[in-house]
Amino acid sequence: MLIFLGFIVLALAANWGVFLDYARYVILIVILHNALALAGGYATASLARVSPYDRRAITIETGIQNSGLGLVLIFGFFHGMGGMAVIAALWGVWHAISGLVLAQFWSRRAAVR
């Protein structure tokens, strides 16, 4: 997690102007994309009639993409290009938050069929 946070700090520090110019658009897109991915994972798992616990796992796995890998690729192959790094950094932060909130929510409720 510390390495991931380090990548986020580097991405934002190197592209602070880009972040300020486009943050409101990027945040909206990131949240919408994540919500659609979580809903799609849950719907697909429900249609497949997997167990309630597997449905939760599939939902989390579908909704939380690997933004750490995205940041490594952006810095390694694209020299940390501004917009890409900012999007991946925000993506990673939001996915961590939404995943933790959903896991906490589900941990307090029994899984029902």
TrEMBL record:
The chain crosses the membrane at residues 23-45. Keywords: Membrane, Transmembrane, Transmembrane helix. The keyword Transmembrane applies. InterPro entries: Bilac:Na_transpt, Na+/solute_symporter_sf. It comes from the Bacteria. This is Sodium bile acid symporter family protein. It comes from Celeribacter persicus. The lineage of its organism: Bacteria, Pseudomonadati, Pseudomonadota, Alphaproteobacteria, Rhodobacterales.
